[in-house]
Design a protein that fits this description.
This protein is about 45% helix and about 20% strand. With about 100 residues, the chain is α/β, with parallel strands linked by helices.
Length: about 100
């Protein structure tokens, strides 16, 4: 599994893979993966040439900043689950990567 933290790097890599009109499946997550996420990865693997999953805990989705601080970050476990499910690419951006203007 390839890890990207920058959107431009991921975009460039995917652009280079587009020969042959490959289909790309995308499974966005906030991490803390469970069987439902893995089922989506396996479905994407079945239906697409490349499967990309993202893990991004989006601070704008939380009304209470304390909830954001308490959200479980389990990147090591999540990475292992994605690898075992055959995910091709993990996109793991920082908050600054997604919201460069703050």
């Amino acid at each position: 599994m390839i890890l990207f933290k920058k959107a431009d790097d991921l975009r460039k890599w995917l652009d280079n893979q587009q020969s042959g009109a490959k289909k790309i499946g995308f499974v966005p997550t906030m991490g803390a993966l469970h069987a439902g996420h893995i089922s989506l990865i396996k479905t994407s693997k079945r239906d697409n040439s490349i499967t990309v999953s993202s893990i991004f805990v989006n601070p704008t989705q939380f009304n209470d900043p304390n909830d954001f601080k308490k959200y479980p970050i389990t990147i090591e476990k999540d990475t292992q689950l994605l690898e075992e499910a055959g995910c091709d690419i993990l996109f793991f951006p920082s908050v600054n990567e997604i919201y460069p203007e703050g």
